[in-house]
Amino acid sequence: xxxxxxxxxxxxxxxxxxxxxxxxxxxxxxxxxxxxxxxxxxxxxxxxxxxxxxxxxxxxxxxxxxxxxxxxxxxxxxxxxxxxxxxxxxxxxxxxxxxxxxxxxxxxxxxxxxxxxxxxxxxxxxxxxxxxxxxxxxxxxxxxxxxxxxxxxxxxxxxxxxxxxxxxxxxxxxxxxxxxxxxxxxxxxxxxxxxxxxxxxxxxxxxxxxxxxxxxxxxxxxxxxxxxxxxxxxxxxxxxxxxxxxxxxxxxxxxxxxxxxxxxxxxxxxxxxxxxxxxxxxxxxxxxxxxxxxxxxxxxxxxxxxxxxxxxxxxxxxxxxxxxxxxxxxxxxxxxxxxxxxxxxxxxxxxxxxxxxxxxxxxxxxxxxxxxxxxxxxxxxxxxxxxxxxxxxxxxxxxxxxxxxxxxxxxxxxxxxxxxxxxxxxxxxxxxxxxxxxxxxxxxxxxxxxxxxxxxxxxx
Length: 460
Known about the structure:
- The protein has helices spanning 2-9, 48-60, 75-84, 100-107, 165-172, 193-204, 216-223, 227-244, 274-280, 314-325, 352-369; strands spanning 17-19, 38-42, 64-69, 89-93, 114-119, 133-135, 142-143, 161-162, 179-181, 209-210, 253-254, 258-261, 286-288, 303-306, 329-332, 376-379, 384-390, 397-403, 409-416, 423-427, 431-435, 437-440, 443-451, 454-459.
- The chain is of the alpha/beta class.
């Protein structure tokens, strides 16, 4: 009965997940005032009764519980035990033999638990029918700092921001399946409160969810109800609620007039690649998987880059020819652009030689783009990332902003193509407020006085 109740609480698309360190029902009080409604519990058969009791208490609070099973021991038996413990579903975390999820599904067919595979990036089933796509591989979001304390610069010349946003954009270009990013905080590290908020925003700004995971020190202090830990936990809940209160934003599509055609085997799922380099320059970009090439993918696009022309089928080449015949500008990569080898199974960032290869690609792409406004241009945003989106009817534009500095950024200017009459700024800390809009040579201008961690500019 409790199992059926949990299944009815919310669909996987609406789950707001957190890795939960405890099975004491008292800790459920921490969820009050947050949108968190899905807890991932590491399955331990020695603690089956405690997990069962906790799952029952969670279901009574309309909170879903998922058993995290790792590739060790008897996976099918662990799945049956989790179902008997009345957990809503199962997360298979790690690299399991092919077909494991199907065998687990068959072994638990009577209860029909939700089964999520949280695997490596390279094994994501992008064109499958999973309730949730999930990976436990990700970079820890933030400005990369060198040993001397200075921010590292990338080929784009700006402070290099470690981000998962390019990877997330590439995955979401395949479809609408919810995406979870299950990477953990850096080991043996006390994570500052701002970095947690940045990790949330890094995923949420491009339509995914980070599976919130607490470092050991923070988890200990939170369990002991340390005042500073409780304060930071409330801020995290506030930021999660910010994005959950505007679920309609996930229906908005990538905006701008620039497209990047790149295949998975050429590094589309790696962080720090050409997609991230373009985004760091705040040029709106639409990732287009080679397998999704169609005239519709180039609607309103005026400029495109094709990383690997040799891999295209005749039909896919026809799409690009039609694009150029209609007046579009296409930069097609020479043979040297293509990666010499496909990314390794455990690889999530570029290796040194690939970074050097990418530097030449970036110079050509940057020369092509120049100072053109391909949807939006932003100023005074060197420690920020942005994402331009448009509503399904094309009447509204969103610019998602995340600041990766440990201090607020002030005096941000945004120039957007098109004539908009109203601008509203949303932020977790200050709610909604109206901003003045003004006309300029590029369309519409808006000035933002300050961005603490994240904000969303909405134009209509």
